[in-house]
Design goal:
It is built from eight helices and three strands, in the order ααααααβββαα. It is mostly helical. It is globular.
Length: 258
């Protein structure tokens, strides 16, 4: 087991990575806060309506997915440079420990920093926004009434795809991974629609994977949804896919040679 993971060795590798990239990560955090502040503040200013919890939830999801995908797809960028790759792979640490450092920074630490940054920006925007006598509200992503937990779970899948692309590709990882990701989503969506279209006699209007099905019959629109218990089981799909891509990413990094 020590050949794969040693706490002291991992700690030293983690501190080395932090010392080398901390300034870059702090700068990236500042840019993220600035972008969120600019976009959310601008939308709140021109919309004429307060930035309520529902709108905050949408921003939280979009910023998390976008920023997380970009950051994770570059976490192993040093493997795309021959000289940096040699230096990284020759470090006296296991492939698992090297992979784990990138995983911890791009998943756990990123989620903590992003959530804190989002709440900071949201609090500032809400404090200066005009609520027209309404009670000001701030999104609670951990509330059962919100979609925060589902958003984090979906992000786990997006992160897994991004870290797989960061290791699998050696150049322009973000562009190549994003292209394959959206291409895959498009193929799955088209196949899902065509398969369901053959199963229903009514006019099928919309059918996204693992979502409600919308039909039209006699000029009336109807929606079909799974029972509540089965809807809860669907959340296992991104979790299973996340572990699959995390595992294949680790297998891929094990194949890297000096």
């Amino acid at each position: 087991m020590k050949n794969h993971f040693n706490a002291q060795r991992f700690g030293q590798l983690f501190r080395k990575h932090s010392a080398e990239y901390l300034n870059q990560y702090l700068l990236s955090t500042g840019v993220l806060i600035g972008v969120m502040m600019l976009i959310m503040g601008f939308i709140a200013y021109i919309s004429g309506t307060p930035l309520n919890a529902r709108m905050q939830d949408i921003f939280f999801m979009l910023f998390l997915f976008g920023a997380g995908f970009i950051f994770t797809s570059t976490i192993f960028s040093n493997l795309g440079n021959k000289n940096q790759a040699i230096a990284a792979l020759s470090l006296p640490a296991s492939h698992f420990e090297k992979y784990l450092v990138g995983w911890v920074y791009s998943f756990i630490i990123f989620l903590v920093v992003f959530t804190a940054s989002f709440y900071l920006v949201t609090a500032l925007v809400v404090s200066i926004d005009e609520w027209y006598g309404q009670e000001k509200e701030i999104l609670n992503v951990f509330s059962p009434d919100q979609q925060g937990l589902k958003t984090y779970i979906i992000y786990a899948f997006i992160h897994a795809v991004a870290i797989w692309g960061a290791i699998f590709f050696t150049k322009i990882q973000f562009i190549k991974t994003a292209f394959l990701f959206f291409l895959g989503l498009g193929v799955v969506a088209v196949l899902n629609f065509q398969i369901l279209k053959t199963l229903f006699t009514q006019d099928l209007k919309m059918a996204m994977p693992f979502a409600d099905v919308f039909l039209q019959a006699d000029k009336e629109m109807y929606s079909l949804e799974l029972p509540q218990q089965q809807q809860q089981l669907i959340i296992l799909v991104p979790i299973i896919l996340a572990f699959f891509f995390w595992t294949t990413a680790y297998v891929r990094i094990k194949e890297k040679q000096i």
